[in-house]
Amino acid sequence: MLPMKTLEELMDPAVEARRAARRAARENDLLRQVWRAFLARGAAIPVDALAGELIAPSPEAVREGLARLDAEDLIVVGDGVVRLAYPFSGEPTAFTVRLPDGRTRFTCCAIDALGIAPMLGQPVTVESRCHHCGAPLAFRVNPEGLGVDAQGVVVWVGQQDPDERRACTGH
């Protein structure tokens, strides 16, 4: 059974403040550069490689910026490697996005997969499997919304444990 919430519970100022802070943090130029690197590579990226490639005052400034993005839960750094940069995962997941040129990229979750087309301003194909029966799923997502082949597809969103720091706990 789905939990019922009052409008007051849904409009929790602390939750909305966290969401607003995350939206503002995504306007970070360094994060946009990391997204472009993930889009180009499709794999986890060593911090040292990013420090040498990304535009910033210095490699140390890139390292410091990546540490801040990790602390803000916009990327995940582990063992000197950027493992994911929401919405992109550098490691295989159940949610694949096929780009217009045929390259595939992994996303952290179904919601992230749905957001790639508007993010890029290009249509993509989302591929996954039904969580219930395991049947393969593949459908188009355009920058404006779902393609007609997505009819009947449902995305379930679970509630994150309040003690979880990371939005993506699978990594």
Principal-axes shape call: globular
Rounded Rg: 17 Å
- Name the structural class: alpha+beta
Low-confidence stretches: none
Binned, the helix content reads 25-40%
Question: Could you give a short account of the major beta sheet?
Answer: 9 strands, antiparallel
Tally of distinct domains: 2
Number of helices: 6
Q: What is the typical, i.e. mean, pLDDT?
A: 86
* CATH architecture tag of the largest domain: 2-Layer Sandwich
End-to-end separation in angstroms reads 28 Å
CATH topology of the largest domain: Beta-Lactamase
- CATH class bucket of the largest domain: Alpha Beta
Task: Describe what you observe in this structure.
By secondary structure, this protein is α+β, with helices and mostly antiparallel strands. Helices cover 36% and strands 20% of the residues. It is built from six helices and nine strands, in the order αααβααβββββαβββ. It has helices at residues 7-10, 13-25, 29-41, 47-53, 59-71, 110-120, and strands at 45-46, 75-78, 81-85, 88-89, 96-98, 104-107, 124-129, 136-142, 145-146. The model has no long low-confidence stretch (mean pLDDT 86).
Itemize the secondary structure elements and their pairings:
Layout lengths: L6 H4 L2 H13 L3 H13 L3 E2 H7 L5 H13 L3 E4 L2 E5 L2 E2 L6 E3 L5 E4 L2 H11 L3 E6 L6 E7 L2 E2 L25
Antiparallel strand pairs: 1-3, 2-3, 3-4, 4-6, 5-6, 5-7, 7-8, 8-9
Keywords:
171 residues, 2 domains, globular
